[in-house]
Amino acid sequence: MTNDRDRPTPPSDLDRDAGEALARLEDRDADDLRAIAAYLEDLAAWTESATDESDERAATGSTPSNPDGDVGEDIDDGHEYPEGVPDRATVTVKEIADTTYYYYQWRDGDRIESKTVQRKNGSW
Q: Region labeled Disordered — which residues (predicted)?
């Protein structure tokens, strides 16, 4: 059996909620704690990535509906979404070589779904 004085202590700079969450985890078995630690590492990496993307969008002037910051056609409120695309989807419109592309993206649970529709020379 290990000595209790060798037991790790939580970081002192955590807020109250985080400290309480750690206290609830102290009696978990080693496998649970390792699984939780792996999840928290993944969550930290994802949070950093999301923060980096947000900072990049702010610097480049892009928005979630126009992630590349490209100037494209505005989608008016009467825009009809293709079948299978929810109204909450973000839309990016780009014109490349006389072809207009509509890029739709939306979240479905933990997955990001997308659909691309193209219109050549004003026709679908």
A: 47-88
User: Which residue(s) pair with 120 in the sheet?
Assistant: 99, 123
Residue 22 lies in a domain: yes
**Shared-domain flag, residues 120 and 100:** yes
Express each pLDDT in 29-81 by its tens digit.
999 898 888 888 888 888 887 766 655 555 555 555 445 544 444 455 566 78
Same domain, 51 and 103: no
Phi, psi dihedrals of residue 56, rounded to the nearest 5°: -65, -40
What's the pTM value of the predicted model, to 2 decimals? Answer: 0.41
**Residues of the domain holding 123:** 63-124
3-state secondary structure of 106: strand
Tell me how far the alpha carbon of residue 100 is from its chain's centroid: 26
Two tokens, residue 96: 């490349």
Beta strands in the chain (DSSP E): 90-96, 99-108, 111-120
- The percent of the chain in helix, strand and coil, each rounded to the nearest 5, is 35, 25, 40
